Amino acid sequence: MTELKPGDKAPDFKIPDQDGKVHSLSDYKGDKLVIYFYPKDNTPTCTVQACNLRDNFGDLKNAGYKVLGVSMDSERKHTNFIEKHDLPFPLLADTEKEMVNAYQVYGPKKMFGKVKDGIFRTTFVIDENGIIENVITKVKAKEHSNQILEPTNT
């Protein structure tokens, strides 16, 4: 689990999205940014979470947020996920685990009685100066946009 907390400087990154466009933290200077880490495209909970953010994207945008999803899936898998679910935000392909390691959201997880390394579903809300405002570790996929917009619910 991440040790990053509100008040910490968000780690920089240079990671391509589904189209191969490289994104970095400095690209979002002056913007509020939501970076949500999720385990895998087209899995049930990840799909519910992405669709919740999609369905409430207008509210997030009106509140001044840009949104980036991050998993270790390939650009091609991200493209399929975006097209299948009409997602309005980029998905970063962290295939080398650079960003998941920098944000400390990768490690041993227990799933179906087995321990396996993977991404911890975690969301970072970052202010206009690159400072972490909120870290959501208990993500509720069906209510995720509310957790971002109303931080007292996290």
Please name the CATH architecture: 3-Layer(aba) Sandwich
Task: Report the radius of gyration as a whole number of Å.
Answer: 14 Å
Q: Which CATH class is shown?
A: Alpha Beta
Give the termini distance in whole angstroms.
16 Å
| Overall pLDDT confidence | 94
The global form is: globular
| CATH H-level superfamily title | Glutaredoxin
* Number of extended strands: 9
Structural class: alpha/beta
> How many H/I helices?
5
CATH fold name: Glutaredoxin
Strand order of the largest sheet: 5-4-3-8-9
What does this structure look like?
The chain is of the alpha/beta class. The chain has a single domain (14-153), classed as 3-Layer(aba) Sandwich (Glutaredoxin). The chain has helices at residues 44-55, 57-62, 75-85, 98-102, 144-149, and strands at 14-16, 22-24, 32-37, 65-71, 91-93, 106-111, 114-119, 122-126, 132-136. The strands form 3 sheets. It has a 5-stranded mixed sheet. The protein is globular, with a radius of gyration of 14 Å. The relative contact order is 0.25.
Secondary-structure map:
Layout: E1 14-16, E2 22-24, E3 32-37, H1 44-55, H2 57-62, E4 65-71, H3 75-85, E5 91-93, H4 98-102, E6 106-111, E7 114-119, E8 122-126, E9 132-136, H5 144-149
Parallel strand pairs: 3-4, 4-5
Antiparallel strand pairs: 1-2, 3-8, 6-7, 8-9
